[in-house]
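User: I'm preparing a small set of examples for a lab meeting where we compare how different chains pack in three dimensions. I only have the primary sequence for this one, and I'd like the structure in token form so I can line it up with the others. Please keep the answer compact; I'll paste it straight into my notes.
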Amino acid sequence: MHGRTNHLELYISEAFMTGPGERTGPTMFTQNAGARILSIAQRVDRLDVDVVTTELSSILGATVVAVLGHATETRSVRAWAHGEYKPARADVLQFALVLALVIAEFQGRDIVQAWFLGSNSWLNNANPMLVLGDRPLEQVRKPLMAAARAFALS
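Assistant: Understood. Below is the structure token output for the 154-residue chain.
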């Protein structure tokens, strides 16, 4: 994925957003958290799609990755992971990995799948997996990053 897409500007602004209830700007804790989120985004931005798919599948499972990538079966996810072909929604998988790693960094890896599959008050009680899977990334990037950040820092 490296070199083809660069969403770091968006990650920077979203990672350093003022947290809920913070009226005077980010605290030292949220600034440190923002730097950690940015570091995650930079690492993911350098990964090829096969590595993104493999890592995301290990965290969320092939079924969730298939939904995010608009595949009808998990066999497609295995093909992406083996570099047989690239998913049409590689940018969505990349962003999903950023979200997954942010949550894992602050709350633990075992919580990530539950966050993706559960209802989320930051998303009007919608399921993050379906929000990311059903809508254009440009429309959902900010609300999903805000929801992940709020959950990670709670």
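A couple of notes for your slides: Confidence is low (pLDDT under 50) at residues 1-5, 18-26. The radius of gyration is 15 Å.

User: Perfect, thanks.
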